[in-house]
Write a structure and sequence with these properties.
mainly beta, 4 helices
Length: 331
């Protein structure tokens, strides 16, 4: 019988101070924390052992996953996205257990959606719990920087009752578990993944602009891996002791007042889509939604057809295509 064990991933002696967090969180090398998933030579570990290049070409994309399954924690990576024409390209940094629970999997997603030349990358976040893919909780945002010019840190905080997405330690989204969510809140142990792949069918303007392999290879760079969570036995899948493990005290438990102010400012300026305000999908906003009048105003400015009640026209001024989640995307 496999004995249940707990261990916090502190394999590397080098520590990263995650800006704004009160404690040091360890950085792990690629081999300590991750393993190859797909893509053969399109995944390249650099000589320092701490950085990885993932590339997409006409032959294949690429990706990797963590050695361990985790039940809650803080997980992040510094990522530099491909530049120039990237329409149709999707870079994902996410948690999932789809390989173990094919019909009722959980997922916490960062997806980076490429664009045509002169248009910015966008970030999409999403969660699924217990296979609730028909009840998507997508949000999309612009960024205050060009993510292809330099590395930026993208982080996921996952606790029993809270999920927070961070960009450079600025929380951009908070999801609090509500009783009405039931199994829709991710609760089963998950692995960490990073992938690059061809999302021509939906990623840019709902599939209008596809990957152009004339610009390949598309290379994304990742480094400074933080895997700071409760690793669980892959057979037992039990996590009852995780929340009381002493080491878990080093993981943030929520958003500070200063961070909350920054999050509100970001969302009111940069949000481009939120399921909470999409009355065509949800006549009544789901219980976890905390509506904000300034966010609503930003969405009306960005997409007056979907969020402002403006009649849909078929001329050049209003050209919206449906993405895989049923929401419109703009370039």
């Amino acid at each position: 019988m496999v004995i249940f064990h707990l261990r916090i991933f502190v394999l590397c002696s080098v520590a990263l101070l995650v800006s704004g967090f009160s404690r040091n969180l360890p950085i792990v090398s690629f081999d300590e924390g991750y393993t190859h998933l797909f893509g053969d030579s399109n995944l390249r570990v650099l000589e320092d052992g701490k950085s990885v290049h993932l590339s997409l070409d006409q032959r294949t994309g690429s990706g990797f996953l963590s050695h361990d399954l985790y039940s809650h924690g803080f997980f992040s990576a510094s990522i530099k996205l491909p530049s120039d024409y990237t329409a149709g390209v999707v870079v994902a940094f996410y948690m999932s257990n789809a390989e173990m629970f094919q019909k009722n999997h959980d997922e916490i997603d960062f997806e980076f959606l490429g664009n045509i030349r002169g248009k910015d990358w966008r970030i999409q976040t999403n969660i699924y719990g217990n296979g609730s893919t028909s009840r998507g909780r997508e949000e999309r945002y612009g960024l205050w920087f060009d993510p292809s010019e330099d590395f930026h840190q993208y982080g996921i905080l996952w606790t029993e009752n809270l999920i927070v997405f961070y960009v450079d330690n600025v929380p951009i989204r908070e999801i609090k578990r509500t009783e009405a969510m039931g199994g829709d809140f991710p609760s089963k142990p998950m692995s960490l993944y990073a992938t690059i792949w061809d999302g021509s069918g939906w990623a840019t303007a709902g599939g209008k602009y596809k990957v152009n392999y004339k610009y390949a290879p598309f290379v994304t760079e990742l480094s400074e891996f933080v895997l700071h969570g409760c690793a669980v036995d892959p057979i037992e899948l039990s996590s009852d002791k995780c929340e009381t493990a002493p080491e878990m005290a080093s993981i943030p438990t929520g958003i500070t007042p200063e961070q909350r102010t920054k999050m509100a400012s970001f969302r009111r300026k940069s949000i481009q889509y939120s399921y909470c305000y999409d009355s065509a999908r949800y006549k009544v906003p789901p219980t976890e939604c905390a509506l904000d009048s300034k966010e609503a105003e930003q969405l009306r400015r960005f997409d007056p057809v979907r969020f402002g009640g403006v009649p849909r026209h078929h001329g050049r001024r209003h050209r919206h295509r449906s993405s895989r989640d049923g929401s419109s995307s703009s370039t």
